[in-house]
Amino acid sequence: MAITNRHLMILVLMCNYFLFGLLLNSVGIVILQSINSFGVSKENAALLEGFKDLPIAIVSFFVASLLPRLGYRKAMLIAVSLVLLACLAMPMIASFWATKLFFLCVGSAFALIKVSVYASVGLLTNSKQNHASLLNSIEGIFMCGVLSGYWIFSAFIDDQNPASSAWLNVYWLIAGLCAFNLLLMFAVKFDDRPATDSTTELTTEPTSKLTTNTNPASPVTSPFEDFIAMLKLVLRPLVYSFMGAMFLYVLIEQGIGTWLPTFNSEVLRLPASIAVQITSLFALSLALGRLGAGWLLRFIPWHLFLAGCILAMATLVILTLPLAHNVEAKADSHWFNLPLAAYIFPLIGLFMAPIYPLLNSLVLSSLPQHQQSSMTGLIIIFSALGGTTGSIITGTVFNQFSGQTAFYLALVPMACIFLLIFHLKRMST
After folding, report:
1. Which alpha helices (H) appear in 188-339, and where do they start and end?
2. How far is it, in rounded angstroms, from Cα 132 to Cα 293?
3. What is the pLDDT of residue 239?
4. Alpha-carbon distance 84 to 257, whole Å?
5. What contacts 130, CB < 8 A, 6 or more positions away?
6. 88-115 pLDDT, tens per residue?
7. Using one digit for the tens of pLDDT, what is the confidence trace for 256-309?
8. Nearest CA to 53 among 222, 196, 314, 254?
9. Cα(250)–Cα(81) distance, rounded to whole angstroms?
10. Cα gap 102→122, rounded to integer Å
11. What phi and psi, each to the nearest 5 degrees, are found at residue 200?
12. Under a CB-based contact definition with an 8 Å cutoff, are residues 356 and 386 in contact?
């Protein structure tokens, strides 16, 4: 099969999502290493999630409706260039305030990337089924980036000297990945003009979706009107119910994902490098769960599928966390003699994985193309707020009580999402 420009555009989206999967979810690793290398407290280290997520929310709030005018490729070029500079600065400055600045840049850049990627999926697909399939594949690639990050970072961690800052050398390698993505984007023709026309009619042929409807009756809106239109979306019952579910889901995912390396290190008594490596099982579970969800959804109604995922997550929490009590440290810890909880608990990602892309696809495919960029902005805002809230709550409870108590707390938002799933089902039928 010949490689078309559409295939290359999809490759661009996947490469950028892989890069940001690696970067965004490294915050848990950086929290652990900041505690070891810079001597910061858990409460202060938890703020890194805010430096990552709040810029995502703020930038998305103000620019999501404007990106179609700028162009999605230009937005992605700006984002990756900013991250390239931030990666180069990390090993040269080597301080905790530099990590805050780094995640500030990563969060701001990801706001541009995510809006561009999600809106571009609508330009490259011609049905709800194709939209959900491509979005799940891209989210699966994102999780492959997360999975790779745990192994890449662990290769630079010095277990013999926990305070060593040698782990910062990983950012030279990541800067090289940024440079590769920039070259790829310059090489691919990326025509995103249809997203700027609110009355564009997209045909069933993928290639024809890259042309513009020149209907003279098409209304021309100002950036301010686009911004107001994004805010008005929140008033729709389907949208604000979806946003509630999204906020709670990300609160759970980031609360667990961000603090799992520290949980492995301090509760399960594992060396830092192994604590990071074993967390890759969580990322692997998320990737497999998202890649496999598309096949299962052919046979199971989406609301029953998601309800089953929530029940499985709660069951795993209840049955697994007791195994993490009173674990004794081993002098010769390796992958084949770890506590049972280290292997089982990360499998929660299998059941957690399908929730985020499926809810996103449900709401995006229910809206016309010209509103999808604004809707993506709202998704990013509420996801960022949920991630920051989850990390801070988990870190605070972890420090004041225990890691087990912090993870048991996830059962509360799980119950809320379970109820919202059936509410969303009623409104979407």
Report:
1. 223-233, 237-266, 272-278, 280-296, 302-320
2. 10
3. 83
4. 24
5. none
6. 999 999 999 999 999 999 999 998 998 8
7. 999 999 999 999 999 989 999 999 999 889 878 877 887 787 788 888 999 999
8. 254
9. 27
10. 31
11. -60, 130
12. no
- pLDDT of 104: 96
∠ Cα 117 122 127 (to 5°): 140
The label of the residue with tokens 């509420």 reads 382
Rounded to whole angstroms, how far apart are CA atoms 375 and 131?
15
Q: Residue 311 corresponds to which amino acid? A: L
Q: Rounded to an integer, what distance in angstroms lies between the CA atom of residue 6 and that of residue 87? A: 30
Q: Please give the C-alpha separations between residue 391 and each of 10, 120, 173, 317, in angstroms, as whole numbers.
A: 32, 30, 27, 18
Give dist(CA 144, CA 284) in Å, integer.
7
In terms of Cβ atoms closer than 10 Å to its own Cβ (0-12, 13-18, 19+), residue 100 is middle
Nearest Cα to Cα of residue 304 among 131, 424, 126? 424
Question: What's residue 174's pLDDT?
Answer: 97
CA distance 415 to 311: 9
* CA 109 to chain CA centroid, nearest Å: 13
Residue 208 and residue 28: Cα distance in Å, rounded? 43
One-letter amino acid identity for 392? I
Alpha helical stretches, state H, 297-353:
302-320, 340-344, 348-352
pLDDT at res. 313: 97
> CA–CA separation, 211 vs 201, rounded Å?
10
**What CA–CA distance (Å, rounded) separates 17 from 292?**
19
Cβ contact 376:143 at 8 Å: no
Q: How far apart are CA 290 and CA 209, in angstroms?
A: 27
> Measuring CA to CA, which residue among 277, 256, 257, 408 is closest to residue 338?
277
The phi-psi region of residue 269 (left if phi > 0; otherwise alpha if psi is between -120 and 50; otherwise beta) is left
Between CA 259 and CA 265 the distance in angstroms is 10
Chain centre distance of CA 323: 29
Whole-number Å distance between alpha carbons of 113 and 81: 12
pLDDT at 86: 97
183 three-state secondary structure: helix
Maximum alpha-carbon separation in the chain: 74
**Token pair of 368, please?**
């016309």
Supply 341's token pair: 């909880």
Q: Residues in the chain with pLDDT < 50?
A: 194-219
Could you give the CA distance from residue 128 to residue 359 in angstroms, rounded to a whole number? Answer: 13
What was the pLDDT predicted at 146? 85
